[in-house]
## 1
Amino acid sequence: MIPKLFVFVLAALFCNAFASDAECPQGAVLSPFDPNICYMVSSNALDYYSAADFCEQAEGHLTSVHNAFENSYLRGAASSIGADTVWIGGSNNNAKGIWKWEDSSAFDWTDWGPGQPNGTAGLCLSVSTHDGFWYGEKCAQAKPFFCKVNPTKRGLASCPNGVQ
Ligand SMILES: *[C@@H]1O[C@H](CO)[C@@H](O)[C@H](O)[C@H]1NC(C)=O
């Protein structure tokens, strides 16, 4: 019988090998925690909808954010380009003012700042490098932004349970 620990270590080795195999399109960097996500950081400030177009031309979307790891990574990347706030890919530009991601993924995690969301429809989502929180802002403002794009070469879709 093959010891469980051995199988686990083997799985971990292969998992890491595949993960490090992932490659991003030019100008994008691999997520440190998900081999199926690449981020493109643009320090060029654009209004929200122009930023969204830019990301779509790069075959991605303004980024969705689904957990605290992703949020703090993006906050750090925004800090490193000297931005106060950056656009991420959410808006509530619809009759009911419901917040949605540009990439149509579930709006399943939030990091609203104090007093947010403030009930106004037609706003777009920024993340602040000062507190890491999200703010609904006027979409016409020009801000640096983050796209989420697919790797050109995929890593392992997901590691086995318990393997990082
Ligand atoms: C909500 O925030 C937006 C954008 O900053 C602002 O224009 C609007 O006046 C705010 N609404 C309320 C009710 O505070």
## 2
Amino acid sequence: MTCAVADGGAPLRRAAAGDHDHRGAAGDHDRPGDDHDHRGAAGDHDGRTPATIALLGAGVIGAGWAARFAVHGHDVRVFDPAPDAAQTLERALAAARRAWRRLTLAPLPAQGSVTLAGSVAEAVRGCELVQESAPEREELKRELLAQAAAAAPPHALIASSTSGLLPSRLASDMSGPERFLVAHPFNPVYLLPLVELCGCTQTSPETIRRAARLYRSVAMRPLVLRREIDGFIADRLLEALWREALWLVADEVATTEEIDDAIRFGAGLRWASMGTFLTYRLGGGEAGMRHFMAQFGPALALPWSHLTDVPQLDEELIDRIVRQSDAQAAGRSIAELERIRDDCLVAVLRGLAGERFGAGEVVALAERNLYERAAAAAAPRTLADGRLVLHRALVAPSWIDYNGHMTESRYLEVLADATDAFLREIGILGPYIDTGRSYYTVESHLRHLAEAHAGDRLTVATRLLGHDAKRLHLFHELLSDERPGPIATGEHMLLHVDRAAGRTTPAGEEVLARLQQIADAQRDLPWPDAAGGQVRGPWVPAP
Ligand SMILES: NC(=O)c1ccc[n+]([C@@H]2O[C@H](COP(=O)([O-])OP(=O)(O)OC[C@H]3O[C@@H](n4cnc5c(N)ncnc54)[C@H](O)[C@@H]3O)[C@@H](O)[C@H]2O)c1
């Protein structure tokens, strides 16, 4: 059965028996029982080549996993008996694509396929990883994991998304438990980087190492537990807060909205970057953590917390919570709230990426990997006519102005990035710049010829119109995949300078040699009509 295409991405389909993936990635030719991974007998995956990931369960979490893996270029095969599994997967994929387009301008790899399988055995055929995300019932999970372990290739990692069940219990019916672990993600899985990894006594260190590597390759931050405990780390912390919050509602101290406000306008903002301990360290001032402990430690003896008790979750309390929660949502649908949540998460992650701190470090690293991967697979850098293509960009939604298209300053930004790419091409790199020499742009003439919209892919074709020892004359054409002809042109004059001396100097011999090579390759190109243009108003007589 072929399902609809979501948001221009890869088709989501239910595989017929014997159906093969379209891409010839890992496991195409594997059959149940095949024990060979063509990338290496140990099955260690580099995370860069597409792998096949088997997912058992495609609810909130399973669909989130599918979206994360597919957005990062892996092929996903899903087993879920629910009749609406395809729709759930499509929704998650669309949300993930939207979120990642907003999160980064770095080029994402070609999206992996997402295929529904008719059985556990079919889903796990030739896979690198089985990720089980079925309902939180121990018996059900044990049986599914045992089936998966029997049918998956022996090298495949087998992971459960359980929020708190002990891995040693989940592994008790499966063959080869040394390759089993819990990999506990957070909702929305396609956006939040944290995944807690928890093995049992049988889990091999190699399994944890391989799993960490694979999850890292899809822009996650694995946190390896030192030993197995119920609830792992994050859910223990979340449950402590949740119990306290339920008591505050039960005791009619606060409404659900007031409790959420207490978090989101205060501590929640600090938690996003620093967590609890680093935040409290700052609370201790210059005297640091010891002072903080001395100052606030005694308060722990006060009977503030109900932590070990649970309020009676009777109908009255549940009704109150539901009523207050409905009021808080103010008529917004779950889909609307999910979109708001994702956009806010993207904003926080983007902000943290600029600081390269906390989860922002993960985003910054993912971006670097995406750029490197794209550069390695880059299309030809020289067009047939000799123009250079050194810079590409994707129009981000935040680049759109009130007129509904790309705002004017972004045209210059993309062209300036193309100029930087040209300078790198001629050797103006770290070691050269460290000698105090560089080029400065001294004049630009920009023409805006057509609109660009969010999601449009832009390419800059660059010509060297002229150069001498100190000057560089560039002409860029900004091209869009969406329409023929340039959407802008930029003409720029640059001077070679000695920064310390504050004056122009001749460029280095090696730079001039590379410039001459480019000039020779572009010698036969006609002079662009628009070059040498200027802004002419009606008050300036035409020459
Ligand atoms: N929801 C969360 O916030 C969250 C966060 C982290 C981890 N988890 C864990 O992830 C797992 C899944 O939770 P969820 O929230 O996605 O639940 P869910 O109810 O949204 O999804 C469960 C899915 O499993 C499917 N399913 C049922 N029986 C199955 C079977 N035999 N084989 C394959 N699929 C089957 C269901 O049809 C459903 O689509 C649970 O272990 C949960 O503890 C949940």
## 3
Amino acid sequence: MGQEQSVTERDKASPSPSVVAGSTLPRSPTKHAGTALNSRIQPHTNRVTKKRPQKIRKDTRERKTIPFGGIPIPHRPPFEPEPKQTAMSIMKPVVGKLPLTDECLHYVDVCEVPQNLQKYFHQRYSIFKFYDYDIRLTNDAWFGITPEPLALRLANDLPSHLYSTPRRTTIVDLFGGAGGNTIAFALSEKWEHVISIERDASTLACAQHNAEVYGVSGYITFIHGDCLDFLDRLKHHPETLDLSLREKCDMSQTVLFASPPWGGVDYKEQDVFDLSTMEPYNLEVLHKACSPMEHALYLPRTSDLRQIAKLAPKGEKIEVVQYCMDGASKAMVVLIPEAMPELT
Ligand SMILES: C[S@@+](CC[C@H](N)C(=O)[O-])C[C@H]1O[C@@H](n2cnc3c(N)ncnc32)[C@H](O)[C@@H]1O
């Protein structure tokens, strides 16, 4: 099954899933024991080979001397130029699955869960409805994951909020994490290509595994790398992206989605969150990295609207959507249109 399958083909190909609140579960989800695919070690053969006695050759090479010192120069191997430093190696999608690591955990009982995560563990079925089917998360991932109902709603709404017509066909989840949004984008069947970038190998392994639990791993292209590096390549050095990525991420067909870490000053403690203090990437850094492409930013619910308004193209409005669960806003999504080249 290729990623390019249309929605209808995909429907036909997959076993009729049971649909629960807009999400699909493979008919018989299996527990994955977290086997490390690449960890098999080939046994050595203990064959003893008899070495031929080596002939001793006389060194006939000419010894050079310093012109007027007379001191012999020690022999050096022939000069070989340093291999040319290639400016950038090619950025490729992950082939197969990254192995699950000791950090890819599935907690069953609250007493196993670190104290600071217990609050999130109690909400595990709001985070992933099918948590019990061996959903894996790193301890860090619990803090940043987009809860499933919200991720599904966002994935389904996003195309209608976008400005570009005709609709774009590729979505790049720049901060893929353990797959909360990525899986929802794939489940929504609104995109021909879903690309998910994550720089932490264990978190990415969780995302791949979780996508498998939801039966959508085959529809997602995972990249293990830095999303800012990816964007720089896409905009300025497309030749350093693997051909398959270049084809899927044609800039005129792609929308970017960014749910960055909300580090820095605790946004919950501020009535209005100053986006210039967000770490490690503040609003300006994110917007600059994503521009000129159409992008959606998933930001704290109290983010400063005056700072966001400054991102609107001259004379235009931009959309800001509050996503709520149980009557309270969880996050704000800001939709920024493609920047048109300035007319001079
Ligand atoms: C808030 S979490 C994203 C959660 C995700 N939306 C979900 O629902 O699972 C942010 C993620 O971005 C990753 N990250 C941070 N900087 C990154 C970068 N420069 N490139 C790629 N991933 C990055 C972190 O490792 C973390 O997993």
